[in-house]
Design a protein that fits this description.
It is a single chain. This protein is α/β, with parallel strands linked by helices and about 675 residues long. The protein is built from 22 helices and 32 strands. The chain has five domains: about 1-85; about 120-265, FAD/NAD(P)-binding domain, CATH 3.50.50; about 265-330, 2-Layer Sandwich (Alpha-Beta Plaits), CATH 3.30.70.20; about 345-505, Rossmann fold (3-Layer(aba) Sandwich); about 515-590, Alpha-Beta Plaits. Helix content is about 30%, strand content about 20%.
């Protein structure tokens, strides 16, 4: 059968699961497929025949993917695109036999989508490594690595170390202060770095030290000290094993010995600086990504921030929290996540599936838990649709709302057993979504984070979950920016809410809301308008006016920190009426007319505040006319200054007389002093 443009091959894995060919065809709207029983072995010819079509193939099996890939490579169709989806552990091997066809159809439809792969960055290691540690253990580790790498050792402390019989690496003593960089480009600051003397006999001796910076492609940190990097386990090329665990040290040595050459890593984040709401004119507004990045890959840079793709570990906290979509998660890129979500839930509902639970998990811990539950316990319930992502922390507020709008009665997010990332960002996104849903009368626990490492307990929890009333699933296309999708989801949820409200309060930090302006203190300077990165604040070129568009506000706070009068505050909320309307007038005044020519040139509140603040100033207190000039337009102010008193005046100039004129008047007997 063909789904989208892919030929799909399915197999019931030697009758260990039930696949209804007719039901599957009806659910997907395709021809009735052939259900194989051993596609990877005695029916492998069927796969070879499908290869001859030359089109892309989707195989409903991941366990035997190497066999299919090898067969394709040996055929004349080696360039054929192969993709795989696991319908066995995720659907077929389940104690719940009520709706397997709808679930299998949904998984196939999702896998058949064409997802644009993420870009990548390259890091190059030429094999230089710094070994940091104390005593003989560091020397022993360095000696092992010197067989394949260019090693330098920095010893801390005053432990006596026997000089090596053969100098296989450079040995120093010093105190490690700081480090920065990434695989292929590390820099380590060392205080009092001193080289070992070659003349040492019973223990190493060192020259006079100096502060310096050492560069290396790799770092092995065996010190009894804190790691040199936050989230150090995600810093490629930096390895800090538990020195009390010999197995960890052995694994570290084995891994590092192989780290020579070019290494590719995904480009997790794409960044558009023109959308960033970090700062304006050195005033700080939004810091969400900076606060949440566990790896230190984000740093301030002018009015925006800078992302280092070599350091980024792909947790996705920044993209999930970014209110302006300046940071976008690119694995996958674009709207692929929402396309997958809409296809998965839509196909399940169209095939007759009900009470669907969306089970969001990562591709490591989550996949392992699903496989273990399928092989040793009851497997996933038929109404639980697994949704694999690179990192669960990439899930944002708008995605959770879209999942609820597309018909998920429950959304469970499985976190890793030992999360290395700070999951505060994910918890905040879940809190925003839960507040929005509960504010509309939906179940308060519709979105939950599950921290469970026991597959049996997780399996039982999923089977024990109570049914929740479902809303009619939405059908809107998964297109546009995240705020567009959020608006569509909220509108659908509001229209079908058990207890709809026009305004729903959200926790602090939510990316939607309004501003409150103290009218009495506002001088209509409009500094907030120029600072707003989202265009939520505006003026009126024809009249003094401050306007606000709540649907565009991202609650970055730049208007608040920019306001010279400090009269702006933020209120996170969802105003469903604001989603459907544009501008509202926050404050409006009559223009102030020039007292000289009558031309409108300012706002009355601004002029009054200037008069109040400057009336006692030394430049104006002794000159009432100078204070009055503040009430004039720019043209009249200049004219008044020169009409009132010429600033360059130096009295009348004497008449110029020539020598000839002096002689003539003297000879005529005229009075020489008259002029």
């Amino acid at each position: 059968m063909k789904v989208s443009d892919k030929t799909v091959l399915v197999c019931d894995c030697e009758h260990t699961m039930s696949i209804d060919a007719d039901g599957l065809a009806a659910a997907l709207g395709v021809d009735v497929p052939v259900v194989h029983t051993q596609l990877c072995r005695r029916q492998l010819d069927a796969f070879s025949d499908a290869l001859q079509s030359g089109g892309p193939l989707l195989i409903g099996c991941t366990q035997e993917a190497p066999i299919f890939a090898e067969t394709a490579a040996e055929s004349e169709q080696a360039e054929t695109s192969l993709t795989f989806t696991n319908i066995r552990e995720r659907a077929g091997w389940s104690a719940d036999k009520t709706r397997p066809t709808a679930k299998i159809a949904a998984l196939i439809a999702e896998a058949a989508l064409d997802i644009t792969p993420a870009g990548s960055v390259t890091m190059t290691s030429e094999g230089s490594i710094l070994v940091l540690g104390q005593g003989d253990s560091a020397i022993a580790a360095a000696r092992r690595l010197s067989e394949t790498l260019d090693v330098r050792v920095v010893l801390e402390g005053n432990k006596d170390v026997a000089p090596p019989a053969v100098t296989e690496m450079l040995i120093y003593r010093g105190e490690v202060k700081d480090a920065r960089g990434h695989l292929g480009k590390f820099e380590v600051d060392v205080a009092d770095l001193a080289a070992a003397r070659p003349s040492a006999r019973d223990s190493l001796e060192f020259d006079v030290g100096q502060n310096t910076t050492l560069g290396a492609d790799l770092i092995l940190d065996l010190r009894d000290a804190d790691p040199l990097f936050t989230a150090h386990e995600k810093r490629d090329g930096y390895v800090k094993p538990d020195t009390g665990n010999p197995l960890q040290v052995e694994i570290a040595l084995g891994d590092l010995a192989q780290m020579v050459g070019d290494f590719e890593k995904p480009l997790y984040i794409t960044y558009k600086s023109e959308r960033c709401a970090h700062s304006r004119s050195e005033l700080i507004g939004c810091t969400r990504c900076l606060d949440l990045c566990p790896a230190g890959a984000i740093t301030p840079s002018g009015d925006g921030v800078s992302f280092d793709p070599h350091i980024c570990a792909g947790c996705g906290n920044c993209a999930a929290a970014c209110p302006t979509e300046a940071a976008i998660y690119a694995l996958p890129g674009g709207d692929a996540m929402f396309q997958r979500l809409r296809t998965l839930l839509g196909t399940f509902h169209n095939a007759g599936g009900e009470n669907v639970v969306l089970f969001i998990h990562d591709t490591r811990h989550g996949d392992e838990m699903i496989e273990t539950m399928a092989r040793h316990y009851q497997g996933l319930p038929a109404n639980v649709l697994p949704f694999a992502v690179n990192e669960v922390s990439q899930i944002g507020f708008e995605f959770l709302l879209a999942a609820a709008a597309y018909g998920a009665v429950k959304i469970d997010v499985l976190t890793p057993a030992r999360p290395s990332d700070d999951l505060a960002g994910l918890a905040a996104q879940v809190a925003y979504a839960s507040s929005a849903l509960s504010g509309l009368g939906y179940a308060a626990d519709r979105v939950e984070i599950i921290d469970e490492a026991d597959p049996e307990a997780l399996c039982q929890r999923l089977y024990d979950e109570q049914s929740i009333a479902a809303n009619p699933p939405a059908t809107f296309a998964a297109l546009g920016q995240k705020r567009d999708l959020m608006g569509l989801a909220l509108t659908h949820l509001h229209e079908n809410a058990p207890a709809p409200k026009d305004v729903v309060a959200l926790p602090d930090g939510a990316p939607v809301g309004t501003i409150e302006v103290n009218d009495a203190g506002c001088t209509m300077c409009l500094a907030c308008v120029s600072a707003c990165p989202a265009g939520a604040l505006g003026d009126n070129p024809d009249s003094p006016m401050l306007r606000f568009n709540e649907a565009a506000c991202v609650q970055c706070g730049l208007c608040k920190v920019t306001c010279p009068e400090k009269v702006i505050s933020l209120t996170p909320r969802i105003n469903f009426a604001a989603l459907a309307r544009d501008w509202v007038v926050v404050k409006e005044e009559e223009p102030f007319l020039c007292v000289s020519c009558g031309k409108p040139f300012a706002v009355k509140a601004t002029i009054d505040r200037m008069m109040e603040k400057l009336s006692d100033h030394s430049m104006f207190a002794d000159d009432p006319d100078a204070l009055d000039r503040l009430k004039m337009c720019e043209d009249c102010r200049v004219v008044n200054m020169f009409d009132d008193k010429q600033p360059m005046s130096a009295g009348s100039r004497p008449q110029i007389r020539t020598t000839e004129e002096e002689i003539r008047r003297r000879d005529a007997g005229e009075n020489m002093d008259e002029d």
